[in-house]
């Protein structure tokens, strides 16, 4: 922890002496040996026999039920609030502190965007005349797969900007109910709703071309792989020109993937957990392909290889996560007319 109270951005603590491995709880950018890589590939191949098609259909058809059961059992006790988000993704609180009530608009790289530049992009656009939640806000964030609010509520606490509005949605109605009953839920700053990310025909309560930031934290991996591209492309339409999509998710050969036993594989790198929920493990190339196919441009696409340590039990655990930032080009067509929203309906 730094003296300013912020968690250091990952990539700053290196294990140079293996004898010191248990001196800290985690080490960044840990390089794998060729033997480790080969062992991981071998383990995945050993457990890659897919389940019968009827079982796969069952997990697909009952996905909502499994996630509702998950949140019914765990409620808000399973996940910790993700305060690290503001270190890795400053776009969620640009140039702000907990006591700062204004923000400077930022580009996908985190640099300030001058008001006249925004004005130029919206020169042909009239003020909003559609009644939707957050219509009068000037900075809008959507979190997809919000769970019980472990990302949304830290954003609302940290970013006090009165012009901020945060949307959050989840496949699970149980999770959304838990968000809405949280005492920190404020309809003046936040709107939670149930939504199936994989259903690209389902309406969002937000016009296309109106979001500054979309956040996907360990959520895309829960979809069936054949539905991922269409889901990302649909989300991209919601972004303003210059808006950014932020993702953090499981990477190939993460410890969680290597722990799956036989009888849990649905297809290549796609598995079902014991509670019926599913998870996919990505490569950088797969995610880059999806984002660029959706018309977005790369700002960041990196692998976070982290060695987590249980000092009490003297255990080491190798985690692999992928972190991405992709933005919509400033000259992109917002695609507003595809949903029936007029260009005079949005900022």
UniProtKB/TrEMBL annotation:
The keyword S-adenosyl-L-methionine applies. GO terms for biological process: methylation; tRNA processing. Gene3D superfamilies: Vaccinia Virus protein VP39 (3.40.50.150). It is an enzyme of class 2 (transferase). Signal peptide: none annotated. The keyword Methyltransferase applies. Its EC number is 2.1.1.-. Pfam families: Methyltransf_23. One of its GO terms (molecular function) is tRNA (cytidine-3-)-methyltransferase activity. Keywords: Methyltransferase, S-adenosyl-L-methionine, Transferase, tRNA processing. InterPro entries: METTL2/6/8-like (IPR026113), SAM-dependent_MTases_sf (IPR029063). Belongs to the methyltransferase superfamily. METL family. S-adenosyl-L-methionine-dependent methyltransferase. This is tRNA N(3)-cytidine methyltransferase. It comes from Takifugu rubripes (Japanese pufferfish).
């Amino acid at each position: 922890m730094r003296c300013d109270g912020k968690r250091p951005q990952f990539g700053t603590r290196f294990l140079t002496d293996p004898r010191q491995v248990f001196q800290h709880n985690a080490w960044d950018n840990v390089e794998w040996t060729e033997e480790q890589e080969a062992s991981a590939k071998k383990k995945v191949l050993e457990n890659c026999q897919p389940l019968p098609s009827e079982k796969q259909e069952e997990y697909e058809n009952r996905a909502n039920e499994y996630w509702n059961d998950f949140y019914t059992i765990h409620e808000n006790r399973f996940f910790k609030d993700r305060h690290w988000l503001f270190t890795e993704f400053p776009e969620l609180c640009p140039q702000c502190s907990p006591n700062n009530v204004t923000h400077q608009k930022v580009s996908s790289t985190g640099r300030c965007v001058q008001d006249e530049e925004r004005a130029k992009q919206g020169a042909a656009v009239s003020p909003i005349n559609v009644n939707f939640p957050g219509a009068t806000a000037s900075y809008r964030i959507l979190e997809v797969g919000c769970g019980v609010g472990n990302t949304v509520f830290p954003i609302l606490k940290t970013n006090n900007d009165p012009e901020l509005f945060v949307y959050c949605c989840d496949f699970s109605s149980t999770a959304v109910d838990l968000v809405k009953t949280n005492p920190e839920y404020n309809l003046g700053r936040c709107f939670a709703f149930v939504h199936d990310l994989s259903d690209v025909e389902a309406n969002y309560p937000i016009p296309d071309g109106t979001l500054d930031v979309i956040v996907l934290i360990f959520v895309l991996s829960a979809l069936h792989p054949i539905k991922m591209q269409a889901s990302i492309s649909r989300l991209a339409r919601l972004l303003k020109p210059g808006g950014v999509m932020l993702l953090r998710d499981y990477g190939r050969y993460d410890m969680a993937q290597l722990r799956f036993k036989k009888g849990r594989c649905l297809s290549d790198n796609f598995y079902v957990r014991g509670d019926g929920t599913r998870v996919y493990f990505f490569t950088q190339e797969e995610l880059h392909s999806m984002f660029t196919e959706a018309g977005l441009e790369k700002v960041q696409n990196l692998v976070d290889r982290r060695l987590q340590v249980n000092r009490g039990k003297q255990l080491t655990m190798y985690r692999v996560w992928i972190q991405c930032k992709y933005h919509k080009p400033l000259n992109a067509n917002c695609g507003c007319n595809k949903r029936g929203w007029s260009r005079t309906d949005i900022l």
